[in-house]
Structures are given as structure tokens and as C-alpha cells.
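User: Hi! Is it possible to get a structure for several chains at once, not just one? Here's what I have:
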Amino acid sequence: MTASGSDGRAKIMAAVRSALLVRGDEPGRRGQVRARLERTPSGLIPARARKPKAELITAFQAMLEVQGTVVRQVAGVQELPLAIAQHLSELNLPARLRHGGDPLLRGLPWENSLIEREEGPAQAADAVSLSRAVAGAAETGTLFLTSGTENPSTLNFLPETHCVVILAESIFGSLEEVWGSLRQVHGRGKLPRTVNLVSGPSCSADIEQTIIRGAHGPRRLAVFVAMSR
Amino acid sequence: MQPTSHAFKENAAAALADANLQRALKNAGGGFIAKRARARDALPEFDALCAQGKDIKNHTLAHLDLYLEAYERKVIEAGGHVHWAANAEDARAIVLYICQKEGAKLVTKGKSMVAEEIALNAALEEAGLEVAETDLGEYIIQIRNEGPSHIIAPAIHLNRDQVEADFRRHHKNLPENRSLLEPVELVSEARGVLREKFLAADVGITGANFLIAETGSSVIVTNEGNGDLTQLLPRVHIVVTSIEKLVPTLEDVSTILRVLARSATGQDMSMYTTFSTGPRREGDPDGPEAYHVVLLDNGRSEMLGTEFQDMLRCIRCGACMNHCPVYGAVGGHAYGWVYPGPMGAVLTPQLVGVHEAGHLPNASSFCGRCEAVCPMGIPLPKMMRHWREREFTQGESPWMQRMAVRGWAFCAKRPRLYRLLANASAGLLSEWGKRRGFFRWLPMAGSWLRYRDLPAPPGRTFQALWKAELDRRQFEAEMGR
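Assistant: Yes, the chains can be modeled jointly so their relative placement is included. Here is the combined structure:
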């Protein structure tokens, strides 16, 4: 853009290189950097993330609950509409929500649940949203949500109540395993525009270090784990 | 933000006399320490992860030019723009240029210490833009017209009743008789007020905790979700960040994320960790239409290859200030600029000059807790010593101190004179302080002894005792033989 921009680049690069005593074209250094970016070696994975699948699902649920998230297990995706309807009624919320164009969410048997649905990105007046997490990491109870028409990112932040569906098969142990699965979908070195790692409902401790839920994002987070498709 | 670090002594004295501040510091102090300790103890691999994180940062800094190039390539590939700012002035000009080009009127901001460092709000407001801080702590200090007093909890110097008064003063359109007694009521009120700003903003500015060379992503770590609403809703997302935030890969950032929140707030993971890569893609129903990254140097490249390079590993967790007895006594504002506590005592002299900030590396008891809790193993006390040396060699330290050091050096180079003086003063002080066993006052040490007592020495110097012990052992050895 501005002249100062490109000027700044040359200045900063020159300053960095002269400080490091390098020219920037040394094959050894370039090779090291290329290798790391291509091979993406993994560091230490904590033992808590290296467990059998069943234990990981339990740990995933426990970690989320500690952070103030409601977690419900359902046997199959067909049961999701009723489970979500029941959750909303427990919270005294109207049976109305918005989700994206995710085929899995679209294709659920909503008829029996009496839930009114709208599709698209979140609007200011939406009270409840529903998203599908593409993956979860059990080590910290973290949901991975990716942007796009299927699950617009605003659904994760604007409404006061956020419901998230995750398939048990998408729950991994570590963050690294999830990155690996995302690379398979989006290609190496590529990510969707936004990847949200969500580990609980919004909160703030800015006033006297007291944790208050619902700072700017959702006040309530509910996760529905579908044990099978 | 105009630094007042030169006035650290006056600032500190005022802080110690500020009853509200002392109440807030007392309330905050122990919480962070206990939470970090619990989180650390719950993860057996914590120390090993810290060591790996340190290696990742060292590797990145040693190849910073190449990772910056790789990162820039990936941002452009994703449709974003990278702007390079050698100093604060350039950075402000770039952000302002983008805002004006986009015809922006209202700018929302997530918490960014780099934005504080370049005094961005003042520059944007001067150009007629409205700037709304959206992190609750940043919002509170914005309406109070103050700087942050802590890098992760900017309003930690305030008590609930002070925030209530600020909200009543600032939110005039809300009913006067509303209750604001509970923190939850204050948080709700701020949520309501800021929601309107989120929805109306033209440009959203966030910082970045990390930049990923592998993917060209910027990463923010928050609990409130304000940073996400800031970057998702407006047409334009500007990331204001600095060159040392680079890490190579998603694996590398995962290792460091495991120690960041644990060191900062004692959480296993913050509520929201968000990876942003370029503007919205074709078909995306939401997200910004333009994505800009402003990469600031502002003195950081000068630290590379020097005794201060290790400081560039800092991931801004705040553990050093949470564990610092000096910070705990005087709070963050006394340090007089954006970065307080031990990390500020090392960084501020670099960024604003040792002439302005020479007091900060001196304001340390060298207890070493900061280094012990730093997840990136930054030798903070050692680097404060380096600043003291620079201050001395540049002739910036006070005359009395220089004379005292010179005098000591003169004696230390003359062992016989040193022993003579040491023996004489040890004997004299011991005799003088025998009755009480300690001193409340001594000539030329009045202000030092105002807050503490000096134990009276045992009468003989360490060297004399050492020699006596050697003599005794030799005697015993000879007798034994």
C-alpha cells in the first residue's frame, strides 16, 4: 500500500538480518525453516491426551463441565432434536434457534421437536444458535468450530445460548491430532478463515478477579455428543 | 501513551499511599499465584512443555527473517495484507490510512498491548474516529482515561465500587436507581452498552498472541469473546502486532498454548482461542471483507543478537508481575508505561530509552520469582542487571550511586584496605547495635531503613570467620596426624 509500508519491510528485514549476522540466503537456514514448515514436527503430547477413545470422551466431557458447560450424550444423531428441545425447555427458552447450512444439522428429524429453525449467520436478535464442531480435543475439553456457510462463525458468539453438536468419532486426545485432521480436509498449510477453539462459555474476571459468565459471548454453552451418526 | 517511568520513585510513593489501590492489590494478589500453581501441578508435563516452548521461540528468533517471509507469503495467499511498521509512528499512520480509506467512523478494539504501545487510540480519536475498547478491563480504563496496569488484567488496580461510580458517571442514559452492587450487574451493563458498538463498527482492531508462519494465521486468546465479535462483525479486521509473535507451525503454537493460560490465569485453556486467516472466503456468510496485519518492530530487532534477545521469547502471560513483590506493592501504573512488572522493567528501557526508564530495572529485590515462574525461562533478573550496567556506563545513574560504586570498586581492588575497612565497620556496627540486635536508622541509609531493619553484624567479617575456620581445620588435621 503506502510507500512507508514497503520501506518499512526493507528496513525491518535489514535490521533483523544484520542483528542475526545473516544474509537470508544461507541454504542451511532456509532448509531448516522449510523442513519445519513442511514436516510440522510434533512436540510433547501430555499423557492425559493419549488414552483410549472411551476415556477421551469421558475426559472431554469432564473438562467442559468444569468450565461451566452443560454436556449431554445421545446415542445417535437422530435423537439430537429432542435432546436440544428438552435443554431449551429446561432453560425456559423458546424453542427457536438458528443454524448454518451444515447437511448433518439440516438432515436431522426436527419435525418431532417443535423447534422453529432459521438458517444463516447470526442476527442481533437471535437468542439461541446451534453449530456443529468439526472436532474436539479431550486434553482441555476444547471444541473446534470452523467458519463457512455450514457453520457461520457469528453463531458461536452473538446469541446468549450456544448449542454445539459433536460426533463422538470427532473427539481426539490432543490439539495436534485435531490439526492433523484439519490438514486432511483443508490441505497442508491451509486453514478456514476462522477456526474457533471454544473451551467454555464467555466469561470475565476483570472486576475484582471474580469470574462472571457471559461477558460478551454466549452466557450458556451446551454440548451434545452424538455417540454415533 | 506518554511514559512517566522517570518518575517511578514518586509514582511508587503515591501508590503506597493510595488506599483504593492497596485494597485492589491485596484482593488480587494471591489469586493468580494459587491458580497458576494448581494448573501447573495438575499437568505433570508442564516444565517439559515450557522447555520445549523456549526452544521453539529460540529457533524462531534465530530464523526470524525467514519465518517473517514465510508468514507474509501465506497471509497474501489467503487474501490478506501485511504492513511493516518500523516504529510506532509508522504503525499509527498505517492503521489510520486503512480506517480512512474504508471511510470508518466507529472502530471497535480487542485488548492489545501493542496498540497501547503505539498509542493508537489517541491517534484515531484525533483524526475524528470513535474508538470503543471492548475488553471489559480495557473498557473500564478507557472511560477513566487511564492506561492499563496489568497486561492481562488492565483494570486490576480498581475495586468494584470504583467501577460502579465510573459506569454511573459514563452511562447517563440508564436509570439512576439501577443496582450495580454485584460484579455480574456491572458485566451485564457493559455487555449491553458494548453490544451496540460491536454491531455498528466499521473496523475491528485486535492484537495477536501468535502469528503462524505455516498458515499465515493470527491467533487471539480471550475469555470474554470480545475479540471475536470485534473481528467478525465489522467490514475490516486489522491485526496490530509485533514481529516477535511468530511461531513456525500449528504444532508449535499448541505446545506454547499449553503453558500460556496455565501461567496466566491458571486455566487449562482460555475460553476462546481463535485462528484467523485472511478475509472471508467465497461463499462465507460472515467475517470481515478485508484483513490487514500491521507488523511492528519498534526496537525489537535491536534486541536480537544482544544480551536482551531472550526477552523476545515473552508470550505476555503476566506470571512475572503476578509473582513480583514490587509489582504487588505498587501496582502497574507506577512503572509509568504499558508494560509493568519484571517484563516491563526489561522491555521498557529498550522501547522508550534507558534515560526515561532507568529506574525500572533498579526497582527489583532480585528475589528471582519472575524467572522461576516464566514459562519461557526468560532470565529477567540477569537482564535487569544488564540494564543497570548500561545505565551506569551511559552515565545515567544518580551521582551518589556512581560515587558509592566507584568507592566500593576502589576498595575491592585493594584487599588490605578492604579488609581493614570491613573489619572496622563490622566491629563498630556490631558494638553499636549490640543492645537491640538491629538498626532502625543509620547515617546515609535513612530512606532505605524507613521500611525495614538492618540486623547488626556479628562483629567479625565473613572473611575473618572463613580464615578462622580454615585455621581450625588445619590445626585439627595436624593434631589428628
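The two ends of chain A are 49 Å apart (CA to CA). Chain A has a mean pLDDT of 95.

User: Great, thank you!
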